[in-house]
């Protein structure tokens, strides 16, 4: 789930080694948009503590830009966006379901599982290659093969907001005062991203 399309997977192969060299792990890569102006979104975090700073996003953006400029895997103009996974982050790796055990999540599978594809409940860790989740309204913990997941994301709850506040406090950032956040280049986005760094490339 870190890469959705064949194009995303090819980009991930280029980006993964760059991130690893900086002590970072790529959470997700998505190339979005049409032919006129596309957006390459990279979500990343530190391998050590699963957090990331604005400065680290900027370093990764510069390093990735150099690799992409040399390899030229994307035709035309595009916007490169490097960010944290955000508070209500996507769960794209098996380890994510251990890291966020106890938090609420929505899951979608690529095939029918007992008559449905969408699930919501409390993440209960992993068992082998399966994701464990305590589904709403059911007594037993369900096991869903990680390979069957098409999408998974944390649900924004009070508990998750408290975790985000604790991370901001650990970074020495001010507490969220409930006011709209500046989402300009390099600034925090309250809902989706802790930090962003944008750059552009033009084939002209």
Shape: globular
Largest sheet: 5 strands, antiparallel
Please give the CATH class of the largest domain: Alpha Beta
Arithmetic mean pLDDT: 87
Estimated structural class: alpha+beta
And the CATH topology of the largest domain? GMP Synthetase, Chain A, domain 3
DSSP, total strands: 9
Description:
With 204 residues, this protein is α+β, with helices and mostly antiparallel strands. It folds into two domains: 6-88 and 173-201, GMP Synthetase, Chain A, domain 3 (2-Layer Sandwich), CATH 3.30.300; 96-155, Ribosome maturation factor RimP, C-terminal domain (SH3 type barrels, Roll). It is built from four helices and nine strands. It has helices at residues 6-21, 54-71, 96-99, 158-171, and strands spanning 24-32, 38-46, 78-83, 104-113, 116-127, 130-135, 142-145, 149-154, 196-201. Helix 1 (6-21) packs across helix 2 (54-71). It comes from Brevundimonas naejangsanensis. Residues 168-204 are annotated as: Disordered. Its main location: cytoplasm. Keywords: Cytoplasm, Ribosome biogenesis.
Topology:
Layout: H1 6-21, E1 24-32, E2 38-46, H2 54-71, E3 78-83, H3 96-99, E4 104-113, E5 116-127, E6 130-135, E7 142-145, E8 149-154, H4 158-171, E9 196-201
Parallel strand pairs: 2-3
Antiparallel strand pairs: 1-2, 3-9, 4-5, 4-8, 5-6, 6-7
């Amino acid at each position: 789930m870190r890469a959705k399309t064949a194009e995303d997977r090819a980009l991930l192969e280029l980006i993964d080694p760059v991130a690893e060299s900086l002590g970072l792990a790529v959470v997700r890569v998505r190339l979005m948009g049409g032919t006129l102006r596309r957006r390459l979104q990279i979500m990343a975090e530190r391998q050590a503590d699963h957090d990331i700073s604005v400065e680290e996003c900027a370093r990764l953006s510069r390093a990735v830009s150099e690799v992409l400029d040399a390899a030229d895997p994307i035709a035309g103009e595009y916007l490169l966006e490097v960010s944290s996974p955000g508070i209500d982050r996507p769960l794209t790796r098996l380890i994510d379901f251990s890291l966020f055990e106890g938090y609420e999540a929505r899951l979608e599978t690529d095939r029918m599982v007992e008559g449905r594809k969408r699930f919501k409940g409390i993440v209960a860790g992993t068992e082998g290659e399966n994701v464990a989740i305590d589904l709403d309204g059911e007594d037993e913990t369900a096991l869903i093969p990680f390979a069957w997941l098409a999408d998974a994301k944390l649900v924004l709850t009070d508990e998750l907001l408290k975790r985000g506040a604790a991370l901001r406090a650990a970074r020495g950032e001010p507490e969220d005062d409930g006011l709209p956040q500046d989402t300009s280049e390099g600034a925090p986005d309250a809902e989706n991203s802790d930090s962003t760094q944008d750059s552009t490339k033009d084939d002209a």
